[in-house]
Protein 1
Amino acid sequence: MTAAAVQTDGVVPVPAGVSVSVRVPASSANLGAGFDCLGIALGLFDEVDVTVVDSGVEVSVTGEGAGQVPLDERHLVVRAINRGLAAVGASVPGLKVECRNVIPHSRGLGSSASAAVAGLAAAAGLLAKSGVAPALSDAQLVQLAGEFEGHPDNAAASALGGAVVSWTDTSHEGDIYGARRVEVHPTIGAYAFVSAVESSTNETRGLLPDTVPRADAVFNVSRASLAVVALQSDPSLLMMATDDRLHQPYRAPAMMPSAELVARLRADDVPAMISGAGPTVLAITDRELPDWAVGTAGELGFSVLALDVAGPVEVS
């Protein structure tokens, strides 16, 4: 019996044969000024089918990540399923997990957060269908996914949909992660300029200084606050609201094509920013891209996706 199938005294098993399907959106974090606290769900989806089986763990992956991720209990979706079940005193004897991935990996579009949310949402679905324990709430999804990620911005966006304001409360023995959804103005959409190369969040985070000038901190607080207004009710403010002094200037030397594309887009009044830790560039706007944008992006090594703002993770 594999590690995923181990049961302990007092743990209620979900019976074999229960199955769920999950559709989870990509996400982008920071949105310029809102470092580690703002995020948005994007209309690019991974799909996961989960079935409880009598024993063992079987994982299949097609699309992004195929041939690069473990196909056993170490797979992030499997770990998230087990963590979600354990949170309410449940378990499974075994799992069959089929992943159809579209979200690019290591590009700043929240692929790992989406996988964690997919697994936790699948756990919630298995609980709801089997009735062996209460299903996970949205708050639990955000908390548990935040534990996998170490911060809740991407995960909260994929879990709740729309845009999110997230936070971490470190005053307790363990970090408490929270988030609230922000309804996005219906005219706002997104363009993802997806880089052909990958980036490591840990490496790019390591480029950030431990302290920043007070003026820069005040600048970003004002712009992040303004972003909530821009996203909800006044898209004309998006250019100003997505300006940033805390992280993108320090990361630019590690992703010069991304920094160059952001600069060119913003020079033409397109609210563009690095998506998460990059190297993907994201534009959030209520306008069409300028005629030159797609061609120039291609020359710099980016493909362009026009995306809607997505709703929350779906379970059926």
Note: The mean pLDDT is 93.
Protein 2
Amino acid sequence: MDILGKIVLVRIDNRLVHGQVGGPWSASLDVNVLIVVDDAVSKDPLQQRLMEFVAKSNNIRIRFFSIYEFVEAIQESNSHLKMFLVVRNVQTVARLVTLGIPIGDVNLGNMHYEKGKIPLSRKVYVNEDDANALQLLLDANVKCFVQDVPGTYREEVTTLTHLKFKK
């Protein structure tokens, strides 16, 4: 698979594009396009318009793709693209890696608490499916870290052995 362009960072954030993503993150990464990879949002013009507003107010281009649309599009992308990908969950990133998309760094931004999830950090909660997908990333030598915004404390995720899920 011949991949053009460069994925600078992938952020997992169940809110997708909001002030932190459109502002401090996009600015600090020196990217020229913000890409939302989410099957549902790729088909939802209202959600797209809301996220476009945030991106435009921060002077960054934004594009929306389903997982498979992105896999096809990146193979034909401009080699000068520096992309900041935003996804809703770790399973999406694991799927992209499984499909051969080269991903180097993943920021675990906001993965809110839901029933059955346990804390990985103050703002990142995982269930067993999340942990399995995260382990796939770690096994593929993807660097994973927890960090709210650039310049704040960055916690590397290197192991998940301390997590104990109820059976």
Note: Strands lie at 6-13, 33-37, 62-65, 82-87, 105-110, 118-119, 125-126, 143-146, 155-157.
Protein 3
Amino acid sequence: MTDSFRCHGCPVCNGKGCTDELPGMGGVNKNENFLLNCSAWKKLYEDEGGAKKIPSLSREQLMDLIRLAPVTGAEENIGWEEEADFYEDFFMTLHYSGIKLSVGDGTPDTKLVYGLNAIKTIQQERDRECRAAVFFKPYPDENLINRIAWATPVANHIGIDIDAYNIVTMRNKVKLEKKTATQIESIMKKIDVPFVLKGVFTRDDIELVKEAKPDIVYFSNHGGRVETRKGSTALTLKEAGPIVKDYCQEIWVDGGIRSRTDIELAHYYGASQVLLARPFIKNFCYSHQSGIEELLK
């Protein structure tokens, strides 16, 4: 089964080993933003004076910050033999390593259902308190309302993944929408948990934040996997974080986070949740472990 993995298990996950591999773990434009996401945290840390300026966090503080970023497409992107088999084992491994969970969706609808069912299984068999942040693509509102109903039993946060609109093939296939502030405000009224606006990365996105005032702003460029402006989430957090903090209650960020210093830097710039996916996927594929000890060393 190892031979089928589309993650190459690179010693350092920095976007250089999977260039343009879509489906797969790579990104668009020769992994341009994937590479920038990874390199920008290190450069920003050095520019800010490193350990002389960025406070060190305890293990408990670090674990409170870490969450799995939403993941789907286990067959086509990861190389898992059966989509349905991936989520329960993956989520269980991370949950028992103390990592907060997220569920993503995709097409067909079964991808979302598999993730939701995996959380339900953990609740029933292991931990009835287990919940996840659940993210939906920006589908037409009727479709979103149905998905909210499916997710409510397991969700501690619900979000819309606005950067998914930039996946052109999916946008055309399932009619993704560029959501307005009015539409987002309407969705927020239909849920009883904090709402997350994921994929904030451009000037237009920041204007949308100002209008809609979501509970949580989530800086992301989809791991460098979508067509958007050139840049990194690290610099976006530094530059746009002070702007959006007056229009939300929390800031989350993902993209190229690979070490405890990356996490500490993200927290220093205002992130209350730091989300990762590729490092956890790599460790799970090759060792069936979460890799949290490697991350925090």
Note: Strands lie at 66-68, 101-103, 132-136, 155-161, 195-200, 216-219, 250-254, 273-276.
Protein 4
Amino acid sequence: METVIESFEHFHKLFSDWPSQTRYYFRGVSKSYYELIPSLGRSTDETGYYDEQRMLREFKSQAQAYMNKIPNNDWEWLALAQHHGLPTRLLDWTTNPLVALYFAVKDDIEINEQEKSNGYDGSSAFYFLIYKTPPLDITISKSPIDYVNSESSRGHGLFWPPHATPRIKAQSGVLSVQQDPSKPFSYGSRLEKYIIPQHLRTKFRQILNAYGVNDSSMFPDLDGLASHLKNIREDHYRSWERDA
């Protein structure tokens, strides 16, 4: 069953009473029909040559030129790679519902003809997860890839990534890892989905900005700042008619 969010007041009533940083997690996605499939499962490599392990090895080898602090293990490396766009078997979650709402509505959506024919209406989605199992102990295995494929694992779990990048800290980030990244993350009735209608995107962005949740705070660098200032112009004045 999917619940439609009717207003920010409705959203606040639903999620303001859940204590943060315990066992309640949130995720926002820009299009409501997107499944909870990690980016590795959504990307294609028909040859099998450029696989998960190879991508991570090359990322580790070449990323060090851009870093002041080197991650301690592959859990940290994979979390860092995830936040910079490398396809991984991880999914981003947060303990802050406002952060998840931000990721659900931060982009304006253009609906293509294929989406229209499939009945997509421009809505986004907000997920609420009650995960009673304790977070994974990342000290017992060198790599998340090895961990989820080991006989002793459940094949999935959540872990708190070290703050290897300011983005993780700013986004109150938590990550899930799963054995088969080609399948949607699922957790039975403890995973709930909420729909956010398209017409609420701009209004929600304006409210979130008033609470200090915007591109600049979620991506604390020059790219985030520039994007934030552009969004102020677009959302408040709607005068930016070109993507430049």
Note: Residues 73 and 103 are 28 Å apart (CA to CA).
